[in-house]
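Re: zinc ion structure - here you go.
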Amino acid sequence: MERVHSLRPPAGRPTNAIDAVDFIISSALKLRASDIHLSPHIPTTEHPDRYLLRYRVHGKLQTIRANFITNYYNEIIARIKVLAEMSSSDVGIPLDGQMVVSSGGDHVVLRISTVPSAGIEELVIRVQRNSNQNLSINKLQMTEEMRMKLIRVTQQKSGLIVLNGPAGSGKTTTIYSIINTLASAERKIITAEDPVETRLPYVNHTQVTSKTSFASLSRAFMRQDADVIFLGEIRDEESAHAALQLAQTGHLVLTTLHSRDAVGVVSRLEALDIHPTNIATTLICSLGQRLIPSLCAKCKEPTHLPDDKIEFLNSILPIPEDTQFYMAGQSCDACVKGYAGRIPLFELFVVDAEISDAINQKQSKLQLNALARQKGMSTLTEEAVLRYYYGYTDLDSIQTYLANYEP
Ligand SMILES: [Zn+2]
């Protein structure tokens, strides 16, 4: 597991580089800064020092009075690089690293990046505040029913859980949320990832390199007495077989796979030379995901729909009475052109005894889909429409989604 650095800021002005680093980081956390910038500086009357410490607070870069930095600048950079396990011999090339600090019981992940600037390194630290606390199945924006199902399936001792969705669909956040929910001292969790995007307490993260494929790592994982294993991606027959083998030998295996939708994971695994019987006995569930634009709650405006649109939406999912539709408003200080971030759509395909039988009998994707729908699975399309009925998104956004993703 990654070492956690406990911050011990000095009572007064730092008198060495070690204290200076703790001082700089803990002051940034107190001021709720999102980024810390350390850079060389050409002295000005306003700021006569040769170095600049700035924090980005609420989106604004602010200079911090810290002339003690002048004495230790290079040592401060070196100390941070040691804590973040970054190479200190590679001077003159951009580097990045990561460290976890604890402050008042909270673990905060810091992402560090350095670039050489006229022979002196500039350093930026991105603060991922409470990132672990926010990573939880309970924080995923899904319906209560789906959340309960997901919690239930992730409590299984062994089997395969597959997430699918295109790049940028938010599935990494979902995977980390599941892992962080499972993470505890009583469970051994190991991962093979490319790249390792977040480090979590109680999780052994392993970076896949040119020398270690997913498949070779998973062979090593067989001997690691793990309970939960995250394999970043099934990308070929070798990694598919490796994932299946781990899932069949007493491990709960989480992974991702490219497929159009949740049910499509079955045929995708078949295409990767996995026998339907093995899929039927091993696959616990697959979770499809997409992101769609979210309306700014502060400035969204009520709107009426023409009859043909109402008919179209009713054909997907009946519109509840008294539904108020919304469209993007004029920009406000909380958004960009009426939109604020994105919200996820989920599709959870749970393999129960009956669906397992159907997979074993090599039923078609259409038949599996119909069976899952009978058992209450909502599709990504229904989820999109539902987000519109609830006022979280607008018609443009779901129409764009439908145009891009519908078969
Ligand atoms: Zn707004």
